[in-house]
From TrEMBL:
Keyword Signal: yes
Source taxonomy: Eukaryota, Viridiplantae, Streptophyta, Embryophyta, Tracheophyta
UniProt entry keywords in alphabetical sequence: Signal
Domain of life of the native organism: Eukaryota
Cited PANTHER family: PROTEIN, PUTATIVE, EXPRESSED-RELATED, SULFOTRANSFERASE
Signal peptide extent: 1-18
Species assigned in the record: Actinidia chinensis var. chinensis (Chinese soft-hair kiwi)
Name recorded for this polypeptide: Nodulation protein like
Length: 318
């Protein structure tokens, strides 16, 4: 009788234990079934392109009907006063491009490689919300990054990040470094002078404002002229060399001004549908370079016979 009772109790115990296990297992299976959705079907792309195609899942919102639209990552790598502000407004006029501005102009974000990676991860996961973000239907997301904003300082790790995460680089430089230098001098003068009714503007939206800013003619320091030009040239060459293993395109401000079909090349590079891109920005320093500076004759003398002589002549009419 005792043996029989023990056997019965044991049997009941094992039985209830099994039922518990079965029920938990089915529960887990059921909730899994609800969470897993059909993965997005990869578009018809070449195998080498796979690493550049992403389906981010932002933490703060849902991509809704565009959930399965592929997203590409990019970064505009440039130098100050090279037309990158203008170029970015052109890109952002596209319905499917979100370029989030000069995010690393804020020092804490570039204090070390971990803060840089953290910031990039957030941008590329579409969780960085600025006026530029198109959110759910973004097909290309990126930022504008100056070479001197931690980019060259941490270039090895950043190249590794770009190659492993599939980030494409858009280099944007200016061919005429003398024009760029004059633009820098005028812009830094305005930081103190604040010519537009007491506010400093680096970019303007009306020809009236552009005219006021262009009235100021800087004087170029002749001692620094050639060393400065050489330094910028070397910095650009070093950047191109460091990032040559990434997928990239090299653009020059002057070429885009002369031929807007360059912008089609950029859209093809980002694999977004082709659109007519527009910017409301107005160019500040128009016309001949000799009218833009105080000491043109001295500059001309200093650059004659140097590798930079062509900067004196290369002008464009708009
Ligand atoms: C990186 O910088 C951030 C912010 O300045 C700091 O909190 C963090 O400890 C730093 N990390 C490393 C690994 O130095
Ligand atoms: C571009 O955005 C529109 C709506 O804003 C969307 O319908 C379209 O699918 C997007 N295109 C791509 C390639 O993501
Ligand atoms: C400065 O302010 C005056 C009056 O408020 C306005 O008419 C003028 O257009 C402004 N100028 C610029 C350059 O913004
Ligand atoms: C040019 O720059 C050098 C070095 O910064 C400085 O010593 C010199 O005074 C400057 N010359 C003029 C005319 O401002
Ligand atoms: C503009 O650039 C495109 C290629 O980007 C080229 O095919 C075309 O000939 C250029 N047009 C002019 C006027 O230079």
């Amino acid at each position: 009788m005792i043996v029989l009772t023990i056997a019965m109790v044991c049997g009941l115990y094992i039985c209830s234990f099994c039922i518990k296990q079965i029920s938990t297992r089915t529960n887990v299976g059921f909730s899994n079934f609800q969470v897993i959705k059909k993965p997005c079907e990869a578009p018809n792309i070449e195998p080498w392109e796979k690493v550049y195609v992403h389906y981010p899942k932002p933490k703060t919102y849902s991509r809704d009907e565009c959930e399965c639209n592929p997203v590409r990552y990019f970064a505009i790598l440039s130098t100050q006063r090279s037309g990158s502000g203008w170029f970015e407004t052109l890109l952002n006029s596209h319905t499917n491009i979100s370029s989030n501005g000069e995010i690393f102009s804020v020092k804490v974000r570039r204090s070390n490689i971990s803060t840089i990676v953290e910031t990039l991860d957030k941008i590329y996961n579409l969780d960085w919300l600025t006026s530029a973000s198109k959110n759910e239907c973004t097909a290309a997301v990126g930022l504008k990054w100056m070479l001197n904003q931690g980019l060259m300082q941490h270039h090895e790790e950043i190249v590794e990040y770009f190659n492993s995460k599939g980030v494409s680089a858009i280099f944007l430089f200016r061919r005429n470094l003398l024009r760029r230098m004059i633009s820098i001098l005028a812009n830094s003068y305005d930081q103190n002078a604040k010519l537009l009714n007491g506010t400093h503007k680096s970019h303007v939206h009306s020809s009236h404002e552009a005219e006021i800013l262009a009235r100021y003619k800087p004087t170029v320091n002749l001692t620094l002229l050639i060393p400065n030009l050489r330094q910028v040239e070397e910095m650009v060459a070093k950047a191109l060399e460091s990032f040559k293993s990434t997928r990239h395109i090299i653009l020059y401000y002057e070429d885009i001004i002369k031929n807007r079909s360059k912008l089609i090349e950029v859209q093809d590079f980002l694999k977004v549908p082709q659109m007519d891109l527009k910017s409301r920005q107005v160019k500040i320093h128009k016309g001949s370079l000799s009218q833009r500076v105080e000491n043109w004759d001295d500059i001309e003398k200093a650059l004659k016979g140097t590798p930079y002589e062509s900067f004196l002549h290369e002008d464009y009419k708009i």
